[in-house]
Amino acid sequence: MAFGLAAYGLWGLFPLYFPLLEPAGGLEIVAHRVLWSLVFVALVLTVARRWRLVRAAVTELRTVLILVGAALLISGNWLIFVYGVNSGQVVETSLGYFINPLVSVLLAVVVLRERLRRLQWVAVGIAAVAVAVLTVDYGRPPWIALSLAVTFALYGLLKKLVRVESAPGLFLETALVALPAVVVLALLHTRGLAATGDEGTGHLLLMMGSGVATAVPLLLFAAAARRVPLSTVGLLQYLTPLMQLAIGVFVYGEPMPPARLAGFAIVWVALAVFTVDSLRNARAVRRRALAEVVPEPV
After folding, report:
1. Residue 144 neighbours by CB under 8 Å, 6+ apart
2. What is the pLDDT of residues 58-76, one digit of tens each?
3. CA–CA distance, 80 with 113 (Å, rounded to integer)
4. Res. 250: pLDDT tops 90
5. H or E element: which one contains 206?
6. Mean pLDDT of the 110-132 span
7. What is the mean pLDDT of residues 45-55?
8. Which of 82, 114, 152, 241 is spaced 20 to 30 Å from 247 by Cα?
C-alpha cells in the first residue's frame, strides 16, 4: 500500500513539477525526460544486476516491436501531458486520467474481444454522457483529456501483451526513442530554440530530475502491483487525477463553472459504478477460488 500510495502521489504532483521546466517547450522537456530516464534506469539495472532481463527481451522480435509501439505511445502521452499542464489546462489533464480506466475497458472489448458485464456497460454509457456534457461546456471535445486517456490505455494494452518487468521494459522503451530525442535536442540547440543550458544550473538539474521523476513512480508502481490485489491498485489510481484536479483548481486557479463541474460529477458516477462492479467481481472470484481449494466434507 505504501508503494502504491507513493507512486500515485508522485504522479499527482507532476503538475507542480513540469511548469518549473519552463521556458523549455514540450518537445525539449520530453526529449530530456526520455534521455535522463534512460540514464537513471540504466543505473538501477546495474545496481540490481538485471541486465540479463534486457538481453532476454531483445532476443524476441515480437517483444521489441510491441515495445516500439509502447515507447511511441508513452512519449506521445508525455508530450500531451506537458502541453496540457504548461498551457494552463491541468483540470482537463486530470479528466484524462479519470476516464482512462473506462477507455481501457472499451479497448478490451474492441481489441481483446472481452465481454463486458452489465454494470461495466452502464459505466461506459455514463462516461459517454459526461464527455458530451464537457464538450458543450468547453465548446469543443476535451481533446487533451481524450488523447491522454486513449494513449495511456493503448500503452497499457501493449504492456499486457509482453511479459517484461518494469525496469527492463522502461529501459527498452526509452532506448528505442533515445535517438529521436537526441535529434530533437540537436535541432533545437542548432536553431537557438533550446532553453536548457541558458537558464542556469538549477534549470539543468530540474531537467535531469525529470528522468528520476519518471522512473521512480513506475518502479514503485511495479512493486505495489506485485504485492497488493489488483482491485486495490485500481482504487488507488484515482488518487492521481484527484490531486491533479485539486492543483488545477486551488493552486493554478483554473475555472470550474457549473457545467464543467456537472461533467466531472457524471464521470465520478461512472467510476463509482465501475468500481463497485470491479469489487463485486473480485469478491466473487475469490469465493470461487476458495470453494475449489477447500475440500468437500466426507
Report:
1. 80, 83, 84, 89, 92, 93, 96
2. 888 888 999 999 999 999 9
3. 29
4. yes
5. helix 201-227
6. 85
7. 91
8. 152
CA-based radius of gyration for the chain: 20
Instruction: Let me know: does 222 contact 76? Beta carbons within 8 Å.
Output: no
Residues in the chain: 298
Which residues are CB-contacts of 287 (< 8 A; sequence separation ≥ 6)?
Answer: none
Instruction: Calculate ∠ Cα 167-170-176, nearest 5°.
Output: 140
Q: How far apart are CA 167 and CA 219, in angstroms?
A: 7
What type of residue sits at position 77? N
Angle at alpha carbon of residue 222, lines to 221 and 228, rounded to 5°? 80
- Predicted confidence at residue 183, as pLDDT, reads 95
Residue 109 backbone dihedrals phi, psi, to 5 degrees: -75, -45
pLDDT confidence tier of residue 232, bands split at 50, 70 and 90:
low
Residue 279: partners with Cβ closer than 8 Å, 6 or more residues away: 231
Q: How far is CA 230 from CA 118, 221, 222, 292, in A?
A: 21, 12, 12, 21
Q: Are 2 and 183 in contact (CB under 8 A)?
A: no
pLDDT of residue 279: 81
CA 25 to chain CA centroid, Å, is: 20
Instruction: Please measure the distance between the N-terminal and C-terminal CA atoms of the chain and give it in whole angstroms.
Output: 40
pLDDT at 296 over 60: no
Among candidate residues 38, 160, 148, the one with its CA nearest the CA of residue 83: 148
**Hey, what amino acid is at 58?**
V
**3-class secondary structure, 57:** helix
Cell of 186: 540537436
Q: What is the pLDDT of residues 255-286, one digit of tens each?
A: 999 989 999 999 999 888 888 888 888 788 77
- Integer Cα distance of 112 and 109 in angstroms: 6
